[in-house]
Write a structure and sequence with these properties.
Blueprint (H helix, E strand, L loop, with lengths): L4 H12 L7 H9 L20 E4 L2 E3 L2 H11 L6 E5 L5 H9 L2 E6 L2 H13 L5 E5 L12 E6 L8 H5 L1 E11 L6 E8 L5 E9 L15
Parallel strand pairs: 3-4, 3-6, 4-5, 6-7
Antiparallel strand pairs: 1-2, 7-8, 8-9
The chain binds S-adenosyl-L-homocysteine (SAH).
């Protein structure tokens, strides 16, 4: 227990359960992961607020509800091998790692890949691997995956990520023609060639920048 345990419980009840998150494993993971160890010092007081927070370099740690929604939609189990694109602070990877066997998370900005590594180590997570590369292409070396979460908005469905799903696997990705507003899609691989796509609703993620994402603005 830490001094934020009561705030986390309140976050779980007011932000997650009240909005329909039901998966008990997801709720327990959100109760457990110390989000305050993944935000910058000057934001610590806001760690459990109902909003995203800046983590530097124009990027954000996602709102708790969005992390829980994505984890629930991914249908993670203890044996799942997972891939996350967009490590940022490392928080979502920590939550996912509570719910599955192993997480590989990819970040394109070297400073943030280092930040995610340091935060995950500091919080005691050892079943998460952080890599610095263009995650719009996935991470073919360890494919296929049971679950893939993309934490940045793509202009169109990244084909490489679909191809790295195991049959039966789930991919959650925000897709939209605008830089900062997307539809959160769940793609389920039914067989080699059949995919089922569901729209889980409107979201606002920072852009996925890369070969199968947006062009680098710099
Ligand atoms: N999951 C994070 C939030 C991520 S914000 C957390 O819990 O804190 C989105 C992240 O995606 C940013 O850090 C951004 O740099 C990264 N990103 C954008 N395009 C990317 C790409 N092609 N490959 C890997 N990371 C990317």
């Amino acid at each position: 227990m830490d001094r934020y345990a009561a705030e986390r419980e309140e976050m779980v009840q007011r932000q997650l359960q009240s909005r329909g998150i039901k998966d008990g494993r997801v709720l327990d993971a959100m109760r457990k992961v110390p989000r305050h160890l993944f935000v910058s010092r000057n934001q610590e007081i806001r760690s459990y607020w109902d909003c995203p927070l800046g983590i530097g370099l124009g990027q954000t740690i996602s709102q708790p509800y969005i992390v829980a929604l994505m984890c629930e939609a991914l249908e993670l189990s203890e044996n799942s091998e997972c891939l996350e694109i967009g490590s940022g602070s490392g928080y979502a990877a920590a939550v996912m790692s509570e719910l599955c066997r192993h997480v590989i998370t990819i970040e394109r900005i070297p400073e943030l890949a280092e930040l995610a590594k340091a935060n995950l180590k500091n919080a005691g997570y050892s079943n998460v691997e952080v890599h610095c590369s263009d995650g719009s292409l996935g991470h073919s070396r360890k494919a296929p995956y049971d679950a893939i979460a993309v934490a940045a908005g793509a202009p169109a469905m990244p084909k490489s990520l679909k191809a790295q799903l195991r049959t039966g696997g789930r991919l959650i990705v925000p897709v939209g023609r605008s830089h900062n507003y997307q539809d959160l899609l769940r793609i389920r691989r039914l067989s080699d060639d059949d995919f089922l796509t569901e729209n889980l609703g409107g979201v606002a993620f920072v852009p996925l920048v890369g070969e199968e994402g947006w062009v680098d603005p710099t």
